[in-house]
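Re-running Threonine aldolase to confirm reproducibility after the cluster update. Everything else is unchanged from the original entry.
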Amino acid sequence: MTDTNEAEQRARRRAAVNGCDKVLSDGKRPSLRERLSQLQVEADAAYDLDGPPDVYGDGVVAELERRTAGLLGTADAAFFPTGTMAQQVALRCWAGRTGNTTVALHPLSHPEMHERRALSALTGLRSIHPTRERRLPDAEEVRGLDEPFGTLMLELPLRDAGFVLPTWEELTATVDAAREREAVVHFDGARLWECPPHFGRPLAEIAGLADSVYVSFYKSLGALSGAALAGPAELVDEARAWRHRYGGLLFQQWPAALAALAGLERELPRLESYVAHAKDVAGALAQGLAGEPWSRVHPSIPHTHQFQVWLPYPAELLDEAALRQAEETKVSVFGGNRWFAAEVPGVSVTEVTVAASALEWTAEDVTEGITDFLRFVRRELPYPAPPARTSPVS
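Result of re-run:
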């Protein structure tokens, strides 16, 4: 697809979803004017807007850092314009402190999948993989690594495996195993905010297992952009120095910081309800897909408020079916999310995010919506649909 066609499709998706009466996954995408109006209202409740804008990280940015450290129970936190930069800096700092440039992490983790090999290109770090299973490494796999490593990085949840999490007992055992290997532990907690319901532990207790934690403000919290690296004061001080070297010390960042503070006020208290409702949504989707061969809702019981849906059709066909459902019925199950080819030939996968717009959907609404979506899928098929099975795949 050319850049022009891609832009046209993106505009069509946005118009289709924003024209819907009901959107299950991810919600509608506001215009720039709507986003500015929303930010002014929400930020007014989160911070004193009569104060001056920030200058090189003071003011509202410093306040965001203070609140983030308080929520995570760490000594300090530093704001970064991107999570990629925050994580690169964290792993670089730990390599210098441990004297070991090897990082143990999952091959589906963000630095391996979405950062263009920045670990090696920018910092000279090297990665090793304790496991290739579609889950985080367990304690025995960490103990069994046949070479030393300075840092174990754990992505909580592991997005590209289906937003999956270990149990609390498994997580603590894995952390203990890393410490036995005299390694430090860093959490890629871009979506750590929604993990407490799964673990049954408060946010600060989860973050307290690691030596450092990165969190995102636009993922889950709905901010414009930005991230934070939290941990011991000495580490965060060093991270601020590297942030400057990496070009991350911006003159003013108040829009991003205000949106992050608003997200902490507005979305953080709601995440528990989103996680609970995601279980109902996933169950209803599985019921609606029960007769569809090779379909899968993964995990069958979501660990957070996000999960995957797998279907045995080309991604382009599923994208078109989603668009036509939105345009013709004013109801969208998958929102603006795209479908992508999965590892299994002939199968595609998409992500479902259960947030504010999904709370009005009952289980019956979800089952009806996915059943209707399949009708649009079959309408797009150039060949007869495969025979239905009698039992669902979880």
